[in-house]
Amino acid sequence: MDWNRIEGNWKQFSGMIREKWGEITDDELDKMEGKREQLEGKLQEKYGMGKEAVKKTVDDWLNTLG
Question: How does pLDDT run across 14-58, given as a tens digit for each residue?
């Protein structure tokens, strides 16, 4: 899946992100406004993952969406 599609439908996909990564709050998702870099940064902060691990995790999640 293309990130531009997620960014364009952020409200819809933010629910899926909350299901996948429950430590991210609604307020944090609202502030991201669909920006992948901000999501990756928040995942690093909340889950203590490295930059490459976060990038791979987000890519893997995107691949499950089709």
Answer: 999 999 999 999 999 999 999 999 999 999 999 999 999 999 999
Among 9, 5, 10, smallest CA distance to 39 is for: 10
Q: 18 with 24: CB under 8 angstroms?
A: yes
Q: What is the 3-state composition of the chain as percent helix, strand, coil, each rounded to the nearest 5?
A: 75, 0, 25
Read off the pTM.
Answer: 0.91
- Any residues with CB less than 8 A from the CB of 8 and at least 6 apart, and which? 34
pLDDT value for 1: 85
Output the CA torsion sign for 39, 41, 44, 50: positive
